[in-house]
Design brief:
This protein is of the alpha+beta class. About 55% of the residues lie in helices and about 15% in strands. A hairpin with a 5-residue loop joins β10 and β11 (about 490-500). The two termini are about 65 Å apart.
C-alpha cells in the first residue's frame, strides 16, 4: 500500500478548470469587495478576499488556492490601498498590510488545501481498508486453491487467464491450482525457478533474463515457499508500480490463507486414510466373527453326525441337519451382504426392473428367515388393493430380509413383529415394527452408516454393520429411502419407502 509520502509525490496536477475557478473566484471576490467597500473599513475588506481563497482551497487543491491568493493580493492592493486604481503603494504601513495579507492568504489557502487532500487520502485509505477486509473475508471462507485464486482475480480486477497459482506436484513439476500443468516458455520456467529458490519476486526486469511474459511472487510460510503467484503482463511490460504495491499488500494474506487450505487438505487426507484403515479393520474383525460363528456351528453339527450318526435317533439327526441348514442360510446372507456392498460401492448395481407384488416380496422375505423368526410371532398385513411395484425384486427382497433379520435379533423371545404394507398413491411403504429395546435419539441418525456396530448398531455390536446400510443403498437405487421411528424401551419401527409407477410410465424405462 502506498505511503503518505508516495501519495503526496504522486498526486496529479489540478485540472485547468480548477485554475479557471480560482481566477473567477478572485474576480468575484473583487467585485463583492467593491460592492461592500462603502460600508466596511479597509481591514474588513481583506476578510472578503481571505474567504474567497479559503473557498477555492476547500473546493480544489494547493495550486489553484495559491493562484487565487496571488490574484486576491493584487486586487486588494490595486482597488483598495491608496492610491486606489494603482499598483503603487505610498505608505509603508500599507505595504506591511499588503504583505501580511499575502502571507495569511497563502498560509490559509495552503492549509485548507492540505486538509482537503488529507481528507481525500483518508477516504482512499478507508476504501482500501474495506477492500482488504472484504478480501480477507473471502480468503477465510475459501475451500481450496481455486477459491483463493478467484479472490485474487476479483481483488486485482484481472481476467482469469492473466493470473495463476503454481505449486510443485509429487514429481516436482509445476502445476496450477486446478491440478493442470501450465505451458511455460524456457525463460518463464527459469524465471519461476529463480523466484522459488531465491524467495524474491522475479520477472520482466530481472537483469539475468529478457522479457518473460510472467511475473512471479513467492508465497512464503516462514522461510519455505508454498506456491508462486503469477501474473501475465501485457505485451511483456512490467506490472505498474501501484499494482506491485497492491500485490505486496495482498501476498501475506494470500500466503496465510494458502497455508490454511493446504493444512486442511493434509488433515483431510490423513483423516480419510485413518477412516479407511478403521473401516478396513472393522470389516475384517466383523466379517471374521460373523463368518466364523456359523462355520463353527456347521462344523460341530457335521462332526457330530460323522461320529455318532449310528447312535443318534432320527429326531436328533433332523435337528442337527436343520441347524446346519439354518447356519448355512445365515452364512449365505452375510456373503450376500458383502457382495451387495461391493456392488453398491463400485457403482456396479444395474437394475433389471419388473412388476412385482408387495405381498409376494414380504412372503418371500419371511420364508427366507423362517429359522430366525420361528421363535417370534409375525403378523403380516397386506391390503388387497396394493398396487404393483416396478423394481428388481431380488434387491428389494434382500432389503426386507436385512430389516427383518435386524428386528428379529433385537426382539425378545416370543415377541411380536408387525409387518405392514400401505401406499398413498405416489409411494408404497413397508413398515416393520419390533418390541426390542429401541434406539436412543442420538444414535438414530447413524444406524444406516456402514459398520455402525460399536454401541448398538444395526446388529447390536455382533455383526458386520452392513445390513441397514445395504438396505438403504438398494432403496436409493430405486429412488426410495428409509427412516426409523424409535422410542427407547418401546421398540423400533423401520419404514421403507419406494416410488410407485403407472404401467405406461414403467414401459418407457424398459
Amino acid at each position: 500500500m502506498p505511503s503518505a509520502a508516495d501519495r503526496l509525490t504522486s498526486r496529479p496536477l489540478a485540472p485547468p478548470s480548477d485554475y479557471l475557478l480560482a481566477i473567477l473566484a478572485a474576480l468575484s471576490g473583487s467585485l463583492l469587495a467593491l460592492a461592500v467597500s462603502r460600508w466596511l473599513d479597509l481591514p474588513n475588506i481583506s476578510l472578503v478576499f481571505l474567504a474567497v481563497v479559503l473557498l477555492v482551497a476547500v473546493r480544489s487543491s494547493v495550486g489553484p488556492a495559491l493562484l487565487c491568493a496571488l490574484l486576491s493580493f493584487a486586487a486588494y492592493g490595486f482597488f483598495f490601498l491608496p492610491p486606489t486604481w494603482s499598483v503603487v503603494v505610498h505608505r509603508e504601513q500599507d505595504v506591511l498590510t499588503l504583505m501580511f495579507f499575502l502571507l495569511i492568504a497563502l498560509l490559509t489557502g495552503n492549509l485548507a488545501a492540505r486538509q482537503r487532500q488529507q481528507f481525500r487520502d483518508l477516504q482512499v485509505a478507508q476504501r482500501q481498508t474495506e477492500s482488504l477486509l472484504t478480501f480477507a473475508e473471502r480468503l477465510s471462507s475459501a475451500q481450496d486453491q481455486r477459491d483463493l485464486l478467484a479472490a485474487m482475480h476479483s481483488q486485482l480486477d484481472l481476467p482469469a487467464e492473466r493470473l495463476c497459482l503454481l505449486s510443485r506436484d509429487a514429481q516436482d513439476q509445476w502445476q496450477q491450482a486446478d491440478g493442470s500443468p501450465l505451458q511455460l516458455s524456457e525463460l518463464e520456467r527459469i524465471s519461476a525457478e529463480h523466484a522459488w529458490h531465491n524467495r524474491h519476486p522475479r520477472g520482466y526486469d530481472s537483469h539475468s533474463l529478457t522479457h518473460p511474459h510472467w511475473w512471479w511472487w513467492p508465497l512464503m510460510d516462514g522461510d519455505q515457499p508454498l506456491a508462486l503467484l503469477g501474473m501475465r503482463t501485457v505485451q511483456g511490460d512490467p506490472p505498474a508500480g501501484e499494482q506491485r504495491q497492491l500485490i505486496g499488500v495482498l501476498l501475506p494474506l494470500l500466503a496465510h490463507a494458502l497455508a490454511r487450505v493446504q493444512l486442511v487438505e493434509t488433515l483431510g487426507h490423513t483423516r480419510l486414510q485413518h477412516e479407511t484403515e478403521r473401516l478396513r479393520s472393522a470389516l475384517l474383525a466383523s466379517v471374521s466373527h460373523d463368518l466364523r460363528t456359523p462355520l463353527t456351528a456347521m462344523r460341530g453339527n457335521i462332526e457330530t453326525l460323522q461320529l455318532f450318526i449310528d447312535s443318534l435317533d432320527k429326531a436328533t439327526r433332523d435337528d442337527l441337519l436343520q441347524s446346519t441348514a439354518s447356519e448355512a442360510s445365515r452364512l449365505d446372507r452375510y456373503i450376500q451382504n458383502l457382495l451387495d456392498m461391493t456392488r453398491l460401492g463400485h457403482g456396479g448395481l444395474h437394475l433389471e426392473c419388473d412388476w412385482v407384488a408387495a405381498g409376494d416380496l414380504l412372503a418371500a422375505a419371511v420364508q427366507r428367515l423362517q429359522p430366525v423368526l420361528q421363535s417370534l410371532h409375525v403378523r403380516l398385513e397386506v391390503p388387497t388393493d396394493m398396487p404393483l411395484l416396478r423394481v428388481q425384486g431380488a434387491l428389494i427382497e434382500q432389503a426386507l430380509v436385512n430389516v427383518l433379520d435386524n428386528a428379529a435379533r433385537f426382539s425378545p423371545l416370543n415377541g411380536t413383529i408387525d409387518i405392514k404394507a400401505s401406499h398413498d398413491g405416489e409411494h408404497l411403504y413397508f413398515t416393520i415394527s419390533d418390541q426390542g429395546p429401541g434406539i436412543p435419539a442420538d444414535e438414530q441418525a447413524h444406524i444406516f452408516d456402514l459398520f455402525y456396530t460399536a454401541a448398538r448398531g444395526d446388529r447390536g455390536g455382533q455383526g458386520t454393520g452392513l445390513g441397514l446400510a445395504i438396505c438403504l443403498g438398494m432403496l436409493n437405487a430405486h429412488g426410495g429411502t428409509a427412516r426409523v421411528d424409535s422410542t427407547p424401551g418401546k421398540g423400533t419401527t423401520m419404514i421403507l419407502q419406494l416410488p410407485l409407477q403407472r404401467p405406461d410410465e414403467g414401459s418407457n424405462h424398459d
